[in-house]
Amino acid sequence: MGKVGTAVVSALLGAAAGAAGTNYLNQKTIAQKTEKVDKFKGYYNMLNQWLMLKQEGKSLEKYFVDNGYKTIAIYGMGEMGNRLYDELKNSTEVTMKYAVDQNAASAYAEIEVIDKDEDYEDVDVMVVTATFAFDEIAEELSEKVNFPVVCLEDVVFEA
Hints:
The protein is of the alpha/beta class. 53% of the residues lie in helices and 14% in strands.
């Protein structure tokens, strides 16, 4: 094969590699966006259910009381964690002991927030508010705690 043939083959291979690389990046971007959309759809559905409960005069407190959970820890003090805290802070039947957050130093909350790598005080249940990552978080916590870990989404839909 001559120089021209080698140049043509090299150009074709380069174009194919470029197209494959571009396709890979596009697919990765689409997957990331789909994951983000799914996360927010999940939050929307959960918050809609929570709002319907509130409109019916119900509270998430009933879930905890019905399951014998008197002391609670919150895992994740983003928006959902703060909403859960607000929902339960005046409860006479359940007490929130502390919260856990990977950014504990910068978390704004009216409750003690500890880092996820610290030791946890025993409670009756820990509620994970990062519903999109519940499985991974629950698995990590299963090696660290001897009390139940529940997903906020399950609490809302079972309340």
